[in-house]
Amino acid sequence: xxxxxxxxxxxxxxxxxxxxxxxxxxxxxxxxxxxxxxxxxxxxxxxxxxxxxxxxxxxxxxxxxxxxxxxxxxxxxxxxxxxxxxxxxxxxxxxxxxxxxxxxxxxxxxxxxxxxxxxxxxxxxxxxxxxxxxxxxxxxxxxxxxxxxxxxxxxxxxxxxxxxxxxxxxxxxxxxxxxxxxxxxxxxxxxxxxxxxxxxxxxxxxxxxxxxxxxxxxxxxxxxxxxxxxxxxxxxxxxxxxxxxxxxxxxxxxxxxxxxxxxxxxxxxxxxxxxxxxxxxxxxxxxxxxxxxxxxxxxxxxxxxxxxxxxxxxxxxxxxxxxxxxxxxxxxxxxxxxxxxxxxxxxxxxxxxxxxxxxxxxxxxxxxxxxxxxxxxxxxxxxxxxxxxxxxxxxxxxxxxxxxxxxxxxxxxxxxxxxxxxxxxxxxxxxxxxxxxxxxxxxxxxxxxxxxxxxxxxxxxxxxxxxxxxxxxxxxxxxxxxxxxxxxxxxxxxxxxxxxxxxxxxxxxxxxxxxxxxxxxxxxxxxxxxxxxxxxxxxxxxxxxxxxxxxxxxxxxxxxxxxxxxxxxxx
Length: 571
Prior knowledge:
six-stranded mixed beta sheet, three-stranded antiparallel beta sheet, 56% helix
């Protein structure tokens, strides 16, 4: 037995270097099967005897694999390890810059691209990537300068296609339409089947007023990818330009059916409602997307669409401004007192995960409390699926326009995914984290539903419970908080958003019939002469005490500073 063991050890030692050589070859083989290649690279990293370029390549491939999963922090760490070993490798530095950019850290991304160009002044990809950041920021001339250099310093057909296509997009934004079409034509010569060209050339044709050409390109794109919401919204814009409002509406609503959070479709539909003189509906659509509440990376098209929504909303609200001086218009009698409205959602009857017992009871408790406090309307909306959830928010947004106070209370599941906070409808399945964009409700939509109120705009979220989808959800995005509730937000001035538990922490259901947050809120909110800002400080302290310091509510945003707000007995 001893002899056999010693012989085995000798054979293992003999195969070690051979095995390492196989791992190195597999790790550096661009045609290797991805799973086997990653396993080989991880073996190389684990073997501290392997140094130099082979080790640097292994860290690079780890970073590339993590990028595909959208684990940008992990990718940055891997690329940094590769860079330490091979500091002159511009491909690694460029890759780390892309990871920083996708994470939203543009300054570090630009620093990496700058370093690339110091080491290799003809590196076209670094120019292209700097151009993408400037384009996303709206610095269009700077972006054009970068794309011109990218086109000048192409290294292969793939980069030539990419650089011409990106410059074509930018030229369209600059209204240099002939130059845009020329770039798209050049890109199409290189890759006739490239899907990006018809999608974005459609946008250029819309800008030129060539709506039939735009429709042809969008139809081509949709034939290849029928659920492409960008192409659907763009085709809607082309139909809108032609005056075919029914077809345009069909495309906008098809896009929103696929992704109810899609900004460009709301903006297009808002413009359509304006044409039909349905100004209340137009305001509702614009308000839904006029501003983001999280610092997240958005493409230039979404950023521009939000700007249009904000400008049109301000214009429509301005249309209801006071009459010019010297002209007095008759007015209808105004009701006295403060008009307060509330939407209460309690999601407990989840269909693909275990149901929650407390949210429906919490919703009833809070609804009853608001009715006692004299709210003009209290809308109970229990166990909402996706479509009913969005419909309820839309209807409440219209109601909020007639109110001084608008309040939303939500109890149920909620989570942060990819930098966006979502409330989870009861029919959500979330087989993959990326499904949240199309199956869940972005928090900014909830905040938008209270935006029309004249004075107090308040959202309360008892929704930071553990994520029941975590064990079965396929990961494509790095989710630091996937099982720990919401991430922090930065709402615009004039809004208050209250989490039942601080960002990244878990709200408790408790051992009683109601959650600790709902129990404390229903009691404290009825106490007289407590200003709302202080009220939520008291709620925080009492929940903290009731849960033995296990749960701490947190408040974001700010209300108008020159006015105090009281639920009971204040002035």
